[in-house]
Amino acid sequence: MSFFLTQFLFYKFYLKKKKSIIYKFKPLFLNSLKILITMFLFAISACGSGSGSYSNSTNNVSDTNNGNGGSGTILATYNTSNIMCNLNGSGTNADESVNAEYDYTWTCSSSNRNLSANGIPNHEIGTFPNAHNPNTVAVVNINKSFNLTPQLLSNISGSSSQEPGIALNGVTFEPGTAGRCDDSGSCNLGMGTGNWNIEALGQTTFNFGDDMNNAHVQPNGQYHYHGVPERYVTQLGKGESMTLIGWAADGFPIYVRYGYAIADDSSSAIKILKSSWKVKSTGDAGRPSTNANNGNAITLGSFTQDYEYTEGLGDLDRCNGRTGVTPEFPSGIYYYVVTDDFPYASRCLRGSL
Question: Domains of the chain: which residue ranges?
Answer without folding.
Answer: 31-47+69-338
